[in-house]
Amino acid sequence: MSKEPSSRAPLPPGTMGLPLLGETLGALKNGFAFVEAGARRHGPIFKTSLFGRKTAVITGPEASALFIDSARVQRSGAMPPHIQTLFAGASLPLLDGQEHRDRKRLVLAAFTRDALASYLPVMQRLVGGSFEKWSARGEVRLVPEFKQLAIETIATTVMGISRGPVLDRLLADYEVVGGGFASLPNPLPGSAFTRARKALDRILAVFEGIIREHQAEPADDGLSRMLAAKTEGGRGITIEEAKMELHHIVVAGLIVWAWFVEAILQLGKHPEIRARLAAEAASGAGSWPLTLEALEKMPVLETVSMEVRRLAPVVFVGFGKARETFEFGGYTVPKGWAVLWGLRSSHLRPEIYTAPEEFDPARFAPPRSEQQRHPCAFVPNGAGPATGHKCAGYEYAPLLLQVFLAELCRGYDVVLQEPQDLERSWSRVPPEPREGLRAVVRKKNSTREASS
Predict the structure, then answer these.
(1) Angstrom distance (rounded) from CA 6 to CA 326
(2) What are phi and psi of 279, to 5 degrees?
(3) Residue 122 scores a pLDDT above 90
(4) Measured between alpha carbons, how far is 365 from 369 in angstroms, rounded to an integer?
(5) C-alpha angle 185/397/80, rounded to 5°?
(6) How many CB atoms lie within 10 A of CB 404?
(7) What are the pLDDT digits (tens) for 40-96?
(8) In angstroms, what CA-CA distances link 222 with 65, 157, 218?
């Protein structure tokens, strides 16, 4: 993967851009294109300056393995201060060592297999109910509907919040916070960043109230599981820690709506893949209601969901910092430099994936199994073990995507309206279709209701 640092190894290729700003404006305009252009021009590592920091951007499977090597890449101090502010402080993506291991143990209590099994009927009810609602409304803009579905599912399964004014306010505030992530850290009144900070304060106040309610009266949801968990030393999670981690869970989980968008766009282009999905969902393998065991027997669903996750633009980098000077790809990364891992670009490397920009779920099935060409070839939720820096919801979010795909292909057709601009607004995080993905959802004439 990489060698010991050498005094003869040069700095990575690339440019530092403008004084002070570096190449920040280009990255904010379209971070996905920025990272991919650098990877194609320079290879698996290039230098730049972003948010006032000297930065090494790394991509590819070897880079994915490097990014989880805690001896070389740390998380503490890795995020630009304004992004860390909008993450509400030192949540899991910003912790290292024993502090990270202890916190991760507490958060993972919300995502055990038993927990996922208990969430699955709720997921299916909310997804199925959403499709039913959309099918009765004529033309809908699916992007806001997908966001509503994602946050409602997370809020219900993790915090026990059902649909209503509190959930509506949370969704509105998360829209504002999302705009802050993609903006410059302008502290002036009325700026996107200032409005995002105020929205975050409102969100955290709601979470504190919910945490105190769960402490007084536990429920069958993710938060109660987290509050009941203990570290090896017997310590539980504090209110402040729980607030940060709930925020982290929502930020990480809400963006599953971008997978929904990618699924609709790709299945619209590939009706033959959609037909195979529908046939599998209607077969004995796709028993209804869904169970974890049934989903594990649906290989088409698994490969389609993997390909959606590989291609969907969600976030363009993960944030790290060089703990010590190290060498990667024949170049030196000095201690203290920012180390940004290009997540989506790592899934577009032609040495791993054949025709990497094509939607081709068969690449994940035998005999091709392209993801097996490297241990870190397929890492949409991060690399390494669950106890490391892989996303705590690395099984939760894909499960929600699979439920979405199964409900869609078994019971509904989505017809995108024309004309409309399907180009994404790349300055948003995640990028979203400019017209909101206008569509008509039609219920299939089938035996779906009889077998539900």
Answers:
(1) 8
(2) -65, -40
(3) yes
(4) 5
(5) 20
(6) 28
(7) 999 999 999 999 999 999 999 999 999 999 999 999 999 988 889 988 888 999 999
(8) 30, 6, 10
What's the pLDDT tens digit per position in 173-207? 998 998 888 777 888 898 989 999 999 999 999 99
Q: Identify residue 126 by its one-letter amino acid code.
A: L
Provide the CA 212 distance to its chain's centre, in angstroms: 28
Helix (H, G, I), strand (E, B) or coil at 377: coil
Give every CB contact of residue 347 below 8 A, 6+ residues apart in sequence.
310, 311, 353, 356, 378, 379, 380
Separation CA 349–CA 293 (nearest Å): 33
Look up residue 87 and give its two tokens.
Answer: 């993450």
With cut-offs at 50, 70 and 90, classify the pLDDT of residue 232: very high
Its sign, for the CA torsion 184, 185, 187, 190, is positive
Sheet containing strand 338-341, edge to edge, reads 45-50, 53-58, 338-341, 318-322, 73-74
Integer CA distances (angstroms), 101 to 67, 108, 380, in order: 17, 10, 21
CA gap 215, 312 in Å, rounded = 38
**pTM metric for this prediction:** 0.93
* Residue 228 to residue 216: CA distance in whole angstroms: 12
Nearest to 252 by CA among 318, 204, 302: 318
Q: Cα separation of 203 and 122, whole Å? A: 23
pLDDT of 368 reads: 97
Task: Check pLDDT > 60 for residue 1.
Answer: no
pLDDT of residue 178: 85
β-pairing, 53-58 vs 338-341, is: parallel
CA distances from 26 to 102, 131, 159, 216, 233 (A): 38, 38, 38, 49, 46
Q: Is the Cβ–Cβ distance between 158 and 115 less than 8 Å?
A: no
Q: What tokens does 415 get?
A: 């017809």
